[in-house]
Each structure stands twice: as structure tokens, then as C-alpha cells.
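Working notes for the structural subgroup meeting. M.R. asked for a predicted model of this chain before we commit to crystallization trials. I am recording the input and output together here so anyone reviewing the notebook later can reproduce the run.

Input as submitted:
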Amino acid sequence: MIRIVNDGALKRLVWKAPVEHTRQLVTALREQYQRWASKELEISDHSLTAEIWGHMLAERYALRLRRMINRPVTNRFVRFLLDRMAIIDCGERRVDNNRFIWDGIAPFRKGIRWLLPTRK
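Returned structure, recorded in C-alpha cell form:
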């Protein structure tokens, strides 16, 4: 299992150049996993990318929702989402029960990429 903290540092890195920087991050994660586990990580680069971007986007749109509809029920729902988006747990199929979601979304990552903000 790989754990990524979805914080300001991750956003600054990814939003500056989403495709290039996410590719670099995924490469670094693979290398670290290889050193730690002494085996290859059995998750595709595309699936890892989809998971990272998916968590970042879910958090972004949850915060927008809270600004648009500031009601107690909405705020509870947003807090629920934010809690789940704070840490990105990337696991192989045998230990990650939602890997199939990210594998399924992976082919659409180019479309997802256009939803990400970019900052220079």
C-alpha cells in the first residue's frame, strides 16, 4: 500500500504541470515501493494517475459545493468527503477493494486531466 498525503505540497506539484509532474511522482512512488517491498508495484501508471487526480478533484469539488450550498447537511457530507480525500491509499488489487474503480477510470484520464486546474 502506498499512502500519499493530499495536501498543499501535492497540489502545488501536480497543478503546476499535471501530466509531467504526476508522471514523475508515479515513477518516484514505484522506485520507493521497489526499494521497500523488494518487488514491483502491481498497479498501472494510468491507474495511479487516475487515483491521484480523482482524489484531488473530489476534494476540489466538495469544497466548491460547500461554498455554493452552506447548509448543515451539505457541510457534513463535505466533511465526510474531505476526510476520505485527505490520504490517497493506493493498493494492489488484493489489498485495495476499490482498485477496480481506478483501473476503470484510467482510460479516461486525458479527459479528467482537463478538469484539473493548472498553475504556472
